[in-house]
Amino acid sequence: MRKRRILHVLAFVILILPAAAQAAPAVLATIKPVHSLVAGVMEGVGQPELLIGGGLSEHSYALKPSDAARIAAARVVFWIGPDLETTLSGPLANLAGGARVVALENAPGLRRLFARPGGLWEGKSPASGPINPHVWLDPKNAIAMTRAIAAALSAADPADAARYSANARSQIARLTALDQQLARLLAPVHGRPFIVFHDAYPYFDTRYGLRAIGAVTVEPDRPVGPRRVAQLRDALKSGKAVCIFREPQFAPALIMALADGTTARVGVLDPLGADLPPGPGLYPALMEQMARALVQCLGQRAP
Ligand SMILES: [Zn+2]
């Protein structure tokens, strides 16, 4: 009897040991939306770390010594790429020695758009030059990113490959449903003209037929010249744009000054999900929050 029980215990230990002994690889993601998509693919295996959290801007992030240590300890690092987290190019090349560094702006099947200048856009979008790095703001791109994330994680951690690919499949189904939901939500504000703070939204706009007609700035941390300020104010005054959007990462003074004395409304767009809790649910929440902010500000009701 006793022997049998020991055998049972032994069998149990042998069955669970392989799973328990395999620790999830140390995974680091740069910005919250990337972290969210990675967290979804890693569910049940482990949790990725977030490098650039809180209210930090994706453009002006400066590496802290503690972050350098986290990069050095990671086995897989996911970032958008040198077009977005520009200041990380050097540290990722130098610190992440043995790590797999995955630039999601290069994910197979991801759609890329070219960067536009700041101010009011007249005429067509450019057909060459640097790319606009806000690639995650299109659920179809998030699907391409999910596939690339699952492939990289499976290569780094083959023991959990089946889990990663099952998670990726359910995440892709959720993103497909999200895309349809956003299209329905945004249909009433097709073609309503607005101005954004920085040009983070062409992926969202082209996917859902929205009409941003200009951006206050291309590089959010550089001052805006008086000519552009006058040009944007004219657009708001004449009703060429019905709404101007600020972003929680940046002080609202300039946006408020632009809108002051015009009939334009001021809304908030947050391309990073600064106030949302990190995790698999952040990405859909961020996209829905953006859609609702657009619908609310661009809606037909009187100002
Ligand atoms: Zn940006």
Task: Chart the SSEs and their pairings.
Elements: H1 2-21, E1 27-31, H2 32-42, E2 49-52, H3 65-73, E3 76-79, H4 89-95, E4 100-103, E5 119-120, H5 139-156, H6 161-186, E6 193-198, H7 202-208, E7 211-217, H8 226-237, E8 243-246, H9 253-259, E9 265-268, H10 282-298
Parallel strand pairs: 1-2, 1-3, 3-4, 6-7, 6-8, 8-9
Antiparallel strand pairs: 5-7
Helix pairs in contact: 2-5, 2-6, 5-6, 6-10
Residues 58-59, 134, 198, 200 line the site of zinc ion.
Number of domains: 2
- Derived from helix and strand composition plus strand pairing, the structural class reads alpha/beta
Q: Tell me the series of helices and strands, N- to C-terminal.
A: HEHEHEHEEHHEHEHEHEH
CATH class bucket of the largest domain: Alpha Beta
* Global Rg: 22 Å
Tally the beta strands: 9
What overall geometry do the principal axes of the alpha carbons give? globular
Low-confidence stretches: 13-21
What is the percentage of strand-forming residues?
Answer: 5-15%
Hetero ligands: zinc ion
Profile the largest sheet.
5 strands, mixed
- Classified in CATH, the superfamily of the largest domain is Nitrogenase molybdenum iron protein domain
The order of strands across the largest sheet is 5-7-6-8-9
The overall pLDDT, averaged over residues, is 89
State the separation between the terminal residues, measured CA to CA: 82 Å
Short description:
This protein has helices at about 1-20, 30-40, 65-75, 90-95, 140-155, 160-185, 200-210, 225-235, 255-260, 280-300, and strands at about 25-30, 50, 75-80, 100-105, 120, 195-200, 210-215, 245, 265-270. With about 300 residues, the chain is α/β, with parallel strands linked by helices. The chain is globular.
